[in-house]
Request: fold
Amino acid sequence: MLVARDLLETRIEDLLSEYPFVGSFFDSQQLDLEGAGEMTLRAFLDKANTAIDDDDAQLSPEEVAVRLSEHIEQMLSFLEDDRERIRTLTLLPGTDKSGQPEGFERIDFHAGQTVCIVGPTGSGKSRLLADIEWVAQRDTPTRRAVWLNGEAPSRQWRFSPTHKLVAQLSQNMNFVMDLSVEEFLRMHAESRVVADPEPLIARIHEEANRLAGESFDKDTPITSLSGGQSRALMIADTAILSRSPIVLIDEIENAGIDRKKALELLVSEEKIVLMATHDPVRP
Amino acid sequence: MKLVTVCGPPSSGKTSVILKTVDALSGRGRKVGVVKFDCLSTEDDLLYEKAGIPVQKGLSGPLCPDHYFVSNVEEVVGWGKKNDFDLLISESAGLCNRCSPYIKDVMAICVIDNLSGVGTPKKIGPMLKLADIVVITKGDIVSQAEREVFASRVSLVNPAAMVLNVNGLTGQGAWELSTLLDEDDRAVETLIGRKLRFSMPAALCSYCLGETRIGETYQLGNVRKIQIEER
Reply:
């Protein structure tokens, strides 16, 4: 764990060379680092606090340093990708809606598997998925527990913005940004602190074109992609760039997209794929 | 009684999130009241009433909404205590992106929505930067990538916050949020003597006092001029 006090005595240029990603943190805090390289963080923050005429700098240097250390921890955990790869998710039984113990011992979901969740409306599909997303620890209405890799997981899975257990793909989702396919993928890669985004961008674009019936260029604005193309891009991007180990999909319609290839891509990226469906008969 | 301040830009889903969260809390026997602070008009109080939640509404009218909030929050706490609430929720909009009605040692929640765009977290300022919990809404209609980028921008601005996704329509995530409110054990007897986490936007110029004419001659008091850059 980084100590905020130590960060305060570190020179800005040393911070930037050790943690190159912290530039965007300072930018988001509206702190301009220009000419500050030689200063310690404390000296820089003291100076910034006196220079700003709005009292917008009411965070003390200590408070900023604590936030910076949180940020660095989050980013470092991004970079150590393998540390917490989820190989198994285990569901332990709780009680059903009438309070009776559930009739299973444990259910294991493995990376690379696709599991269909079947049942009529009101049967508890949403609650099951919510239990997984919230990493239930006998503290949800169902009293179920969820384990990751065979043990009770850390609480950070619940609250961390950067460690979400479940990625979602649904028919209702749209792109809302005004960017080209390439810009969009680059932005996603940058938010994940990917060191060399170009090969990933090329690969996602290629996979998306393999899934979509009609191919599209990297300069196409994402908002003008067809329904099938959008969905193909969302699936390829989630498979390759999302860090969430579990992907929840509501039904993939066959319209405009190759359903089988889409699932193959997701499981080949070692995701646990959960598919909610009202229609268990279809393969 | 516990107090929680919920704020966020207009239409970010504050009321929906609160309604679903109170529903979960009531299910566990908690008695919850809500105060809705707004500017010119609101009909959200009717939504709370319809849900059977005791509600007060405060409209700031011509005054700065934040100044109005801080001048009335103690009265509202008095109302909550008189009614024996376990929890009082104050809902207010952050209208000028400089607003932040958070109080030291009182749980602070910021609600923002995925549709507002990835540039928004940086623009919102102290309302986001100083929140204990950030609730992100409308995640069901944007792509996974946009959700991830948005959340990472939120966490750049406020790395210390717990971040939760709540769907205001289905209530997904609201039960989880309700458990966080239950876990908070900071009771409030009175707010007298307590401090805001962040100062309110400065005011007091001639326009605060009813001036309507335009021109430098009429600008007195706390006035700040734009710097026009020569290119």
Notes: The first strand of chain B starts at residue 2 and ends at 8. Chain B has one domain: 2-218. The interface with chain A takes residues 114-115, 117-118, 121-122, 125-126, 129, 134, 139-146, 148-149, 151-165, 170, 172-173, 175-176, 179, 198-199 of chain B (CB under 8 Å).
